[in-house]
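task queued by scheduler; priority normal; single chain, no ligands, no partner chains; default sampling; output format set to structure tokens
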Amino acid sequence: MSTLALSVLTLATLLAAPPAWSQTILHYDFDQTGTSVSSDGTSNAPLTLRNSAGTATDLHSADARGVSGRAGDRSFQNTGASDHGSAASAATNGFRADQPDDAAIDGLATFTLSGWFKTGDWTGLSGKTPRLVENHDGANGFNLQFLSGSAGDLKLEIDSTSAPAPLEASSGTTGLYAGKSTWIFFAVRYDGTSSTGNVDFYRGFRNDAEAAELGAASAAVELVASSSLGCTTCTLDRGVVGDDGSGLVIGNRDELGRPFDGFIDDVRIDAGLTIPATLESYRQGALATDPISIEWSSSTTVATTVADQNQNTITVNELSAIDYDATSGRFWGVSDKSGRLLELDVDFDSDGAIVGAASIDAVVVANVSDYEGIALPAGAQSVFVSDEASPPQIREFDLSDGSLLQSLAIPSVFASSRANLRFESLSRSYDETEMVAAVQQALTVDGPSGTSTTIPTVVRMLRQVVAGTSVTPAEQYAYVVEPLHATPLGGDGSSLSEIEHLPDGRLLGIERSESSNETLIRIFEIVRVGATDVSQGAAATGLIGQSYTPVEKTLLFADLLGKLEGFAVGPQLPDGRLVALAVEDNSGSGPNVLHSFVIDVPEPGLGALLTAGVLALGLRHSSAGPRRKVRENR
């Protein structure tokens, strides 16, 4: 499959992000056909597409007319109006998508609106105030519209009976969103808990060429304006936006008469202030071929005290990696420094939320070291564990008694790894043909460590060929980690903390960026096709000064979470999605912390499989597929 090159967010944009939690309440991708549009957010309230008379009508675009342009991608084609906004004729000014009042989006103190739009008549926007998103009953609520007097700027209006109305903030009057027949990504954040600078406007594009037409340096999401709600005599701390009795309307207003004449796609309403890195993942996710989507679902804790194979009560904490055994339906984690493996029994509901978690037992293994990665072969009779010793090692242990079975051969270049930044990642493919390991930050012969906000650290990946019990070194690849997202530095800085295989052979990379105030987690899809095998030639002994092509990566998820160390794809949910479990390093204090994620992996076509190098698909550790440790919602 083809992938999108990741555009690195500017430091200024990232530093503008407050440490706030956000969650998608409503998300409409408009990819279906028919008169209804489903939501895959925490609220599943559907939209109804309507013509000007209010009759339910299929207003989906033709196939491949969505923002990505790929087959299967549609959009909301709201082009039935004769013109934008107030200039539309009375007979055509009612086209819209709407839903009844949704309590999930009423009463929000902070929220983020995002999506894509395209119009062929951007000069006609001035003075006509067409609406993009509105949830408003005339006295309470919000609406996002185009600013009167500017051919292509956005205005957010907040109304509440608790304060003078309306309060307004705009992106200016320079036409920041004025692109004729060009898809433009928009995002607007409102912080009702702040009295100044409480509205931020973001913009992005499909590619750099389209971005250049509007004077942007790149397609990546960037902060283009920050404003305060336009009130000089009243407090700007609006608090909760008043509960409104009106429904949500996209592409018009509740009273009608303000249609947006164009295409709208991939609309989200998030509770909270969505950070720029997450907005960038929204932008890239809407454009990817065979896109993978990843969403955080839940978190919980489990006890650190458990019995080992000798029935001794021991403590297992500082979990640094995790893997899934589909045969038993359980997970295995590895402790950072104690040489202990922990078996976990975790149950999920049908939406991927953790509904039960328990520490079952433990295995103490020989050769105690600084263990960081774990990979279970089929049947889980043994386990491979990577470490951060000097030089770094990968060993196989018997899971019944913890005895050492073998130590793998590791290329000598890895002896130049930095202390405590060695083999952090280890993953085994579902078809049992390869394992992939990676160091946490660059080898000393490959480049700088991950402590800079501008210069990335380049880590070295090691592919190993698996044939029965034999595991031998093969290709090596360079992986460019994103620079540290904010200062001051905290923990290890910016690192590759985990690699994980998906059932179709694709790879995920989990990056962790630690400042002293927060930890940003980014999850990428990794594509090795076209990357240089740096185990050959001059690059084999160091990347500094050499010419090479790193693996490509596409951002799938980004948010402020804890110090995630391990990530494992687990059972399949009833709707076909996969649930993943991540572990935090608790630094030796408190319970072990678990996070669940939901992964939607569309069925790739033959071309995508060949590009990914996948000839035989399977479900790891069990020919019958992943055992479902899932409880139906009641």
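post-processing summary
- The chain has two domains: 11-289, 296-623.
- The domain at 296-623 is CATH 2.120.10 (Neuraminidase).
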